[in-house]
Amino acid sequence: MTIKLASIRTIFGIDLRTLALFRVLLGVYILIDLVMRTGDLAAHYTDAGIMPRSVQIDHLYVTTWSLHLANGAAWFQALLFTIAGFAALGLLLGWRTRLMTVLCWALMLSLQNRNTYILSGEDNLSVLLLFWAMFLPLGARYSVDAALERAERVTTNAYCTLATAALLLQGMSMYFFSALLKTHPIWYEDGTAVHYALQLDYLVTPFALWFRQFDDLMSGLTYYVYALELIGPFLIFSPIFHRTLRTVVMLAFMTMHLSFLFFLEIGFFPFISIIMNLTFMPGWMWDRLAAWLPVRSNAPVAIWFDRGCDFCEKTCRLLRVFLFLGDTPVRPAQDDPELGPDLEQRNSWIVTFGNDRTYEFDALARLVSLSPVFFPLGWLMRRGLFRKPGARFYAWVGRNRGAFSRFSARWLAWRETPARFGAVTQGLAGLFLVFITVQNVSTLPWSGLSPLPDAFRMVRQALGLYQNWTMFAPYPEMTSPWPVIEGELTDGSVVDVYHDRPGLADFDKPEVVSAEYANYRWRKFLSQLEDQSYEDRPQTLALNYARYLCRRWPEAHPDMPALATFVIYFQIEVSQPPGQPKEVETRHVWSHDCFG
């Protein structure tokens, strides 16, 4: 039997349609991330919150930068959040894609550097993916940029450069080096790593609380995760049985992250990891999807616009791209001796289906109904409830065609020159690939490369290229904390400060400990606060969190006396081997006087 080996271009290339999916999912991820952060905008990113700028600056490396540190007011942070949201929307749509990618990377890195004590693995990975995205033609397919290209310059979907190799290797390095850092026997001998991970009540979901009764399953999952992280990166790049192995390993990693989603409260890390894994989606999958989801018409379809109307032509091209209509022709009606006069008489674009013609809003509804993805929307648009409003909307657009043409000329300009991803871009991608590889190797205790030179760390911090994949490595945490804060108001009454309610604080273990935290960023901050209390140095996090609680109390309780004093405790639950009960101890972390 002859074994066919995959080529280097196949192994390290990425289909342009996959890059388009990568772009869209990154845009969606950033928008959701910004919305989630907005709920704690004042608490996490202003001088009135838990991390004033003067404190954060003292804890940043010399080359770490942040636009968000320029002003500590909520309005300024909201402005930067808004700009980042528009950049993410531009990235999602593929409008001026490379510029939007650079903006998203810069604003994401800036935002993360504003408060480094609420960050987790998802933040590190998202910045890295955006960094590599700057070296790739994310807007070559299914984008505004692609719709506005005068001529298609990239005729094949196969795309392989140093940048595609770097993105794929970056993704797999997360798993491989994480496996190498899992040096404790509980991973490869005892098989109890998942048991200990699911003992962290402050981090696990209610489903995990139920699931951890199955010791054998947890042991099997331990070996599965360790083996997948260690061997999977080699299999996914295998030239032998490449198509099968890449598909199986990609799906295995994605299902692993979905299981994390069910077991652990770790924010969006599973989602950004799945986005990373989807960059391995091969071109044959897209070809298969195209065969399953063809344009829904047996007759040839064509879209005809009014020559000389810049806005009309661009709208038709955008509809063709975003309705997934493939190579449906878009032509000036004046090119056809019958359709030209028809367009002039009706003052409407025309969509033809063989010998049939449709006009105005009906043409749009019919065109949407042909989309292999959005055809249900087309069915709705053709119902009577939507036809009259649709007709009025079409007439309004027609009356303001001049204004729309001026807008499109300014903001939707034709792409006359291709985005350049040439020798300089690829050379930089190759250089940074070496850079992250050296850094990953330096995290291994036996490498002899640590500590890295100061110049190396300066570049790393300036560009957000930090690599240290200690995901439950060398072993999971062994303590699970949750906060208890009891205070006294100026009138002498006792209050539960953490839960914002009168009465004594409850030191008993909650039914679901992870629900004690407002969200995963608060969990990260408070767990770091508890960790810092063991260190023989100023407890910066505790002090600033206490000051924040003093400021927040009168805002949350304007009709109550002021908060005078309080004590921050943490209940610490210590994990035990299988079959042994856990121990709980109370740790005094900080005492604070709001007027002292």
Brief digest:
By secondary structure, the protein is an alpha+beta fold. The chain contains 26 helices and 9 strands. It starts with 7 loop residues before the first helix and ends with a strand.
Walk across the major sheet and give the strand order: 7-6-5-8-9
Name the poorly predicted regions.
Answer: none
- How much of the residues is beta strand, in percent? 5-15%
Q: Please tell me what the overall shape is.
A: globular
The count of strands amounts to: 9
Report the sheet with the most strands, covering strand number, pairing sense and barrel closure: 5 strands, antiparallel
Helical region count? 26
List keywords for this structure.
alpha+beta, four-stranded mixed beta sheet, five-stranded antiparallel beta sheet, 596 residues, 26 helices, globular, Glutaredoxin
Account of the 3D structure:
With 596 residues, the chain is of the alpha+beta class. It has 3 domains: 8-285 and 422-463, no CATH class; 294-411, Glutaredoxin, CATH 3.40.30; 479-593, no CATH class. Helices cover 53% and strands 9% of the residues. It has helices at residues 8-12, 16-38, 41-45, 53-58, 74-93, 97-114, 121-133, 144-147, 162-181, 185-188, 193-197, 206-211, 215-236, 242-263, 269-277, 283-292, 310-322, 339-346, 360-370, 375-381, 384-399, 401-411, 423-442, 454-463, 520-532, 540-556; strands at 301-305, 330-332, 350-353, 356-359, 479-489, 494-496, 501-502, 563-574, 583-593. The strands form 2 sheets. A 5-stranded antiparallel beta sheet has the order 7-6-5-8-9. Strands 2-1-3-4 form a 4-stranded mixed beta sheet, with helices on both faces. Helix 5 (74-93) runs antiparallel to helix 6 and helix 7 (121-133) runs parallel beside helix 15 (269-277). The longest helix has 23 residues, at 16-38. The protein is globular, with a radius of gyration of 28 Å. It starts with 7 loop residues before the first helix and ends with a strand. The mean pLDDT is 93.
